[in-house]
Amino acid sequence: MSSTSIFDPRSIESAKNAVASFMKAAFSQQKVSTTAVVCSAVVGLFAYEQYVYLKKKKNLPGPTFKIPIIGAFMDSLYPTFEGYMSKWKSGDLSCVSVFDRFVVIASTCDLSRKVLNAPAYAEPAVVDSMKYILCDDNWVFLSGKAHVDYRKGLNVLFTRKALGLYIPIQEKVYHKHFAEWLALDGLTEQYQLRFRELNMESSLRVFLGDYMSDEVAAKISVEYFNITAALELVNFPIPLPGTKVYKAIQSRKYIVKEFIECVKDSRIRMSNKGEIKSMMDAWINSMNEYEAECAANGKPAPRKFDDREISLTLLTFLFASQDATSSALTWAYQLLADHPEVLQKVYDEQVQVRKGQLDQPLTLELMEESTYLRQVVKEILRLRPPVLMVPYQTVREWPLTPGYVVPKGAMIIPSTYPALHDPVAYPNPDAFDPDRWGPEGTAEKYPKNFMVFGNGPHHCLGREYAIMHLMAVIAESALKLEWTHTRTDQSDDISIFATIYPQDGCIMSFRPKQVSA
After folding, report:
1. Is 293 helix (H, G, I), strand (E, B) or coil?
2. How does pLDDT run across 282-295, given as a tens digit for each residue?
3. What distance in Å separates the CA atoms of residue 516 and residue 514, rounded to the nearest whole number?
4. pTM (2 decimals)?
5. How many CA atoms within 13 Å lie on the side-chain side of 128?
6. Residue 488 lies inside a defined structural domain of this protein
7. Pairing mode, if any, of strands 411-414 and 101-106?
8. How many other C-beta atoms lie within 10 A of the C-beta of residue 483?
9. 460 annotated to a ligand binding site
10. Quick one: which of 27, 259, 367, 472 could link to 311 by a disulfide (CB 3.0–4.6 Å)?
11. Which residues contact 504 (CB under 8 A, 6 or more apart)?
């Protein structure tokens, strides 16, 4: 036996070095192998992603390749009107992909109407984040008979009688905000947010009445900004803290909590046969009356909506009306300031229908007599439609055209803007011309093109409410205010924040109306 023991320190050190050298070599080899495998897997996944995209794209206009993983997410995060316009001009159908969502855009009137009227193939998708924000059990996400039945129960809120109830509530809000504008003594500033505040308070007071304080109403207006900000077509898929969707969810929780308190107060007032002062009062009173009628006639008790259901429904009304009507109101003030001859005709008509009594209360009957004013509102909505597109999702493969089958699960988006600027239906479509809606015009001959409020089973339930609101604001403004629009090189350019606005924020000044003797 060698005199060198296996426990000799030199032997141990030599063995340690040998093992370390072997492990280092082995680890280095393993590292190379792992890296190669990972790289190969990533390349394979990216290649497969492109294959899936191209298979769905087929011959549609759209990006030649998808940006790995995120696709056109940045375009969705920062949408531009010019970007949308390029899609509409690229073909009757075009496509894009965002994350794992394949999106098909329908540009023509006929294809857009086809999407809106095909519940067997597609259902409203709102945007991916909305089920988080509005709650996935909200009625707007119902389909088929359940959706139809729910809508029937809401029709009572938008009858002619109901609209007549809302107008005095709205008029009070208008005058409050007019006074705030006039208190600025002709200061020139951006008015887009002021128009939004008028619209928000009008909506809250019509929907929920006087149950909430001015302070709560103001806070809801601020919180609702978070919901609007989360309305990108495709959002970050997980509502992690700090994301827009997460903030919107927290805002929804606050708003619904305050709405529920209002519902409780309304139930008490209506059970005591109190005066109906809001849409919520009218709804609860209608349910109470129907329940009593069923009991008297021995019929089964009707379905009762709990406080949360009523609150979520009113939130969807706010969701449907707030941004769209704020957009329309902003463009209304700008377009009327830029076309004083139209504003003068609006004023003259109001003098006529009121028979010179300019301070009489606003009524539904006065608005119904204001035929030119209705033409003006329809032209504002046509020229600057607040909602450019309405996302749907296919529930099965859909041969939408002879040459293209939309994949199941794809987002399919009907567009409103091209139909509303079709030169066949609306000659000189980029001009502001309310007379096109009059007896001598041709616009009314093309009702299919006027898709401002959608079409089909999910068309806007509050269409007449929205039109009447815009008419009422404009009528009162024409009688009580004079306003000047400071034009910039961005006044006619469109920015997108859920809906569309002038890029310069609508710079204006207001003064009291000077009526010549």
Report:
1. helix
2. 999 999 998 898 88
3. 6
4. 0.87
5. 22
6. yes
7. parallel
8. 18
9. yes
10. 259
11. 190, 488, 490, 491, 493
Contact 455, 317 (CB under 8 A): no
Domain membership of residue 386 (yes or no) is yes
Q: What is the dihedral of CA 182, 367, 416, 143, to 10 degrees?
A: 110
CATH of the domain at 352: 1.10.630.10
pLDDT at 233: 61
pLDDT (tens digit, 9 = 90+) per residue, 298-329? 888 777 889 999 999 999 999 888 899 999 99
| pLDDT band at residue 517 using 50, 70 and 90 as cut-offs | low
Question: Across-strand partners of 105?
Answer: 94, 413
- Give me the domain span that covers residue 191: 73-512
Is the separation of the CB atoms in 469 and 442 below 8 Å? no
State the residue for tokens 């006619």: 492
Q: Are strands 392-394 and 411-414 parallel, antiparallel or unpaired?
A: antiparallel
In a domain, 57, yes or no: no
> How many angstroms separate the CA atoms of 398 and 412, rounded?
10
Exposure string for 79-89, b = 16+ CB within 10 A, e = fewer: beeeebeebbe
- Please report the pLDDT score of residue 153 as a whole number: 78
Task: Say what the alpha-carbon torsion angle 22, 27, 29, 33 is, to the nearest 10 degrees.
Answer: 160
Report the number of distinct structural domains present in the chain: 1
Question: 93 falls in which pLDDT band (50, 70, 90)?
Answer: very high
